């Protein structure tokens, strides 16, 4: 028999009754039922119940065993009584009577329990991550992650892509985040950088004629942490192709990702047709460039209904250039209680509140005022059916702008009795993000968001440049390596009107993919950088390898990268990316388990010709 096990803890069933077996694993749970010890023995694959009574030669040893001890047992497989069968586990029809026991690794008092669903502080979970990872949910998440990566690889190979590895130690390259720098021992005073992405190398591969590349690539960025982003490193499905248009990239990666979500989505609906939405429309309709389309609410501009109206705040605001008023429809949100709740949400976002209108059944007061009769008479007419009630617009805004304007707003938004609308105004960039969050909150609170669905959309037509409002300086808005739509001719006009062949893929409120058709012509690249204030010499200095390569017959090429961590987070239905990363950092970018970052030894600093200058 094998030194440690003849079977795993998921293998045994009724066909093994009577067999002598050897199992190894961790003590998941110990139960003492009147002198008979029942132990759930757990390994990576599952759980088997083992038992020991005073007739067992190792009963006295078994009494000392505690949770999370690692043990090996020998014993005989027995059938459970029919009324004791556990249908929830594959081994639930059998149990093993223990004849021999070896303690492979005793455990001290546990800082967190593996059995059960108790919540523990993040600091405890990350410091003892090796224990945290023993928990069933995290075991499932890590297996899911591994299976997703394997599926991605197979799907890419099936499309005739080959996987190539790019360097981990390279030159610093500004790509929108801070680099992690690595000092060079052989070249004092000089530094390598960990790659923020394999961007330049994969483009150089296309110049080298490899045509189709992919990689499950590690990327390193010194970023502030968020729930959906690691502060140090992450993995992406990285791909690039030559002689392709933007639509070719969509047509290639879409079936790969759709297949992954269908395979691992747990039966949730996966959109088959992925619409393409311009960056401008996405900001207008959803207040974000990563919209959650499970929520059907679409915001609209309603400025004309408030221009010159009795609502002075919006009317005067609209006299300023570049301002507008947008409405967030709220189907079935037509109650003062809900409107007050959304006002509190706006205040929590730093706003004084949100204007609102809601449509309700016409009150006797409104009928009385309309017909010039008493409220009592109006009540009688409504009750008898002599007068139809209909509906009326309510709320402070409705009173200020009057019935004609409120009715025009209702018709534009397609709202009815029992519905509401919320309003925000100003320069769009100042309120768009708050409007987007309000839209999400309204969708969630009113039950409009379809939680059993993965909803995808390509966000396209990103602006190449943006203007800093304070300095008036032009700079890149997104990826500086994207080909401008219209090529050189586009760059000779208004820079702020230039759109790039650049795109993101949004799913359920997260950005999953970012990509572009690349700017492979040196003269167009130099012009784009010149508009952003970078001279030709600066471009050659920063991106010398790529600029040099493009002078030797660069093909048109494009590609994208899909965030593996985020994809697994969605599939696992987790709200925090740390739940799908094996050994994550904490919110301060610290590894509490390995004590990183740590202070270097003096010998290390001397070798690297470095000196630490204490902060004042």
Can you describe this structure in just a few lines?
The protein is α+β, with helices and mostly antiparallel strands. A hairpin with a 2-residue loop joins strand 1 and strand 2 (36-42).
Strand order of the largest sheet: 6-9-10-24-23-22-19-12
Distance, first to last CA: 66 Å
User: Describe the biggest sheet?
Assistant: 8 strands, mixed
Helix/strand/pairing category? alpha+beta
Give the percentage of residues in beta strands: 15-25%
In round numbers, the mean pLDDT is 93
User: What's the count of strands?
Assistant: 24
Number of helices: 20
What radius of gyration results from the CA coordinates? 32 Å
C-alpha geometry: globular
Helix content: 25-40%
Residue stretches low in confidence (pLDDT < 50, at least 5 long) are none
Describe this structure in words.
By secondary structure, this protein is of the alpha+beta class. α4 (136-158) runs antiparallel to α6. The strands form 6 sheets. Strands 6-9-10-24-23-22-19-12 form an 8-stranded mixed sheet, sandwiched between helices. The protein is globular, with a radius of gyration of 32 Å. The mean pLDDT is 93.
